[in-house]
Structures are given as C-alpha cells and as structure tokens.
Amino acid sequence: xxxxxxxxxxxxxxxxxxxxxxxxxxxxxxxxxxxxxxxxxxxxxxxxxxxxxxxxxxxxxxxxxxxxxxxxxxxxxxxxxxxxxxxxxxxxxxxxxxxxxxxxxxxxxxxxxxxxxxxxxxxxxxxxxxxxxxxxxxxxxxxxxxxxxxxxxxxxxxxxxxxxxxxxx
Length: 169
Description:
Elements: H1 3-18, E1 21-28, E2 31-36, H2 51-57, E3 63-68, H3 71-76, H4 80-88, E4 92-95, E5 100-103, E6 119-120, E7 125-131, E8 134-139, E9 144-149, E10 156-157, E11 162-168
Antiparallel strand pairs: 1-2, 1-3, 4-11, 5-7, 5-10, 6-9, 7-8, 9-11
C-alpha cells in the first residue's frame, strides 16, 4: 500500500471514529477494507454523519456497507450474555442480514408473524427489517420452536444482530 492510500485510510478511520460509526466495509479493485471498532459503542453519543466529508473521502470507492451504531439500538439489543446463553443451549439464532428497523408484524396493530412457542418451518416469515423504505421479509432458516424474540419491534438493528432464538427440531 502506497503512502497516499495509507494516509487516506488513516483519515477515513479518524472520520469513522469522530462520527461514532462502529462498522464499515469498502471494496476497490485492488483493495478491500473492513473496519470494526471494538469496545462499547453504547457509551458514545450518536452524532450526525457529515455525508459530504464521507463522500469526499470515498470518492473513488464503492461503499459496500456503512452503519452507525445508535446508542439506543445497542442498549436495547441483545446483551452478549444472552447471545452466549442461546448458543450454549443448542439454540439457533436468526440474525439480521441487513441494517434496518425490526418489525414483528406486517402492519401496525396487526398480530406478529410469530410468537414465542410457535413452531416454524424453513422459509416461514418471522419478521420484517425495513431498510431504505424497503420491507425485507426475514425467513426462518431452520425448522423448530421460537424460544425467544431478541429484538424489539421498531428497534434499529445492525447487520448480524440476533433477532430470534429457535430450538431446532
């Protein structure tokens, strides 16, 4: 990596830190970068992202994914202990494939797609994750019993955030 690219990367890292962006992916023809900051992003106050500055920094790079981690989303999300407990109990976690807003039902006031105790089949819709005004149906990838709904309806979720714990058949 030449000195110019290294300086651009340093500037990008500083920008991401300054705007409390927890995770960032980027691909160019000869370069692939994934930045994920360790620590507890729930302690940082979320700020507005200066999109003009980010655009300038990444003018020549197609951005694959950039996600700010709002403190409310992290605080309301599943704690690491719950995730570890689910994995230890032989449960399967259905995780969010995208960044967006979790909804347990197809419309406000409608009954949820699934509830704790329901038996689900592979391909059955469990919830919706809204991203950029698109409603993405999240389907079960294993058959079994819903043991826990981890996300809260209306809550922002990140890529890979656990949504449900399923006890496989």
